[in-house]
Amino acid sequence: MLCLVRTLKLAAVFLFLAGAEAAASTFNVVASDDGARMERLADGVFVIIHDDAPDGWPHSNTGVIEYDDGVFVVDSTYLPARARADIKLIKKVTKKPVRYLTTTHWHMDHNNGDIAYREAFPDIVVIREQNVDRYIKVNSPWWKTLSTKDGSSMLKGLSELEHHIDTKMDEDGEALTDGQLRERRAFAKKYRAQVNDTQELDIVSGDILFEGRLVLLLGERRIVLTDHGRANSPHDVTIYLPAEKILFAGDIAVQSPLPYTVYSWPLDWVSVLSDIEDMPVDAMVLGHGPTQTDHNYTRKLHASYKTILDRTAQGLTEGKILSEIQETIALDDLRADYAPWTDNVTNEDWKHFKDTMVDRAFKSIRGQGGL
Ligand SMILES: [Zn+2]
Prior knowledge:
The two termini are 18 Å apart. The chain is globular and about 60 Å long.
């Protein structure tokens, strides 16, 4: 989470959602609804890939792993309503109950939906890395208040949308056509549902907490949960199926289309990406974005972060302050040869990515407090 989408104006978010199309995938879509597609990665292993929430925040991808008498789920998305819809999709592919739920890290776009699973499957066991559990409990009440208090960006977005509907004018003062008005009314209905959903968020506690690594043997299914420590968040956990060579990487690897880097730890992240590259994959589920079939994207991230660290360190040795490095560092070569970072990425988005990554690299290299 913590992406630049949140900083876009509602109008841009609306236009994006209205024009969004599902990216082509190499995996078969076995179930879908108007906001998600469920792809089959292997026998009994699926990923649910979601459109963004009405306020522009991204939902996590959700992993669904069947075993002999149950289902293990990875990441429950940003909103309980989306998780409830996902449960309906899961029921389309299996009659087995969801018995286990875990999350890759504390960011709420990956676990706000936990309550929906607990309501649907009261005996569900929630497994978390111990620090992830602590961070969720600290951050969830804060997020609920921040999102739904007067003047919050979520409420502001809704009120702007309702203003356009009431006045029948768009954000540029142009009259809305009947068709545009219908689309915006339908979108406003979803947006209001999101506000209600967020106001009623409930925190779910972990039932089993682990430290470091946890290996589960569920029937024939071997599931390995590994805490990699600092990368995108203070504790990023991967879920790996060694027999099937399927990796759920969480936000260690995101292509949405740029990675999320605002509150990251780039120095450690480079080492974590190196560890990930050593895990053979036939399918790698990103925290957000399309499923990968190899480690090409992992290597792209690794090389890019290393370059940013090296060039930031070079700026430091030249005696430059942060803003000077951000203004003068040359990183366009990282983008120019890579279509996912040129197509559909504005220069403003690229600058945001570049500036935040350099900021984090600058602090990491200097050993500055808080990292
Ligand atoms: Zn995320």
